[in-house]
Amino acid sequence: MKRKLIFATGNQGKMREIKSIMADAEFEILSMADAGIDVVIQEDGNSFEENALIKARLVWEKCHELVLADDSGLEIDYLNKEPGIYSARYMGEDTSYHIKNARLIERLAGVDDEKRTARFVCAVAAVFPDGSSEVVRACMEGRIGYEEKGENGFGYDPIFVLPQYGCTTAELTLEQKNEESHRGKALRKMKEIIV
Question: Percent of the chain beyond pLDDT 90?
Answer without folding.
Answer: 75
